[in-house]
Design brief:
This protein has 69 residues and is of the alpha+beta class. It is built from three helices and three strands. Strands 2-1-3 form a three-stranded antiparallel β-sheet, with no helix packed on it. The longest helix is centred in the N-terminal third of the chain and has 11 residues.
């Protein structure tokens, strides 16, 4: 039973990511990363799970986005 509750705790962790700057003029792979996170336009927000993969994408485009836990 302890295993199931640990999984539910991890699943509850979410991050809200908002695009605040345009990826135009930056590296093309950064634009693809922004699209991969589901961000479409400036001030568009998405809620993603707090995983190492998501944190890596955020780190790659940290100058273009804001993050709220």
């Amino acid at each position: 039973m302890a295993k199931k509750t640990a999984l539910k705790k991890d699943a509850a962790k979410k991050l809200t990511i908002t695009l605040v700057r345009s990826p135009i003029g930056f590296n093309k792979t950064q634009g693809k990363t922004v699209e991969g996170m589901g961000l479409r336009r400036i001030r568009h927000s998405v809620t993603l799970a707090d995983t190492p993969e998501t944190r890596g994408m955020i780190h790659k485009v940290r100058h273009l986005v804001t993050v709220q836990e």
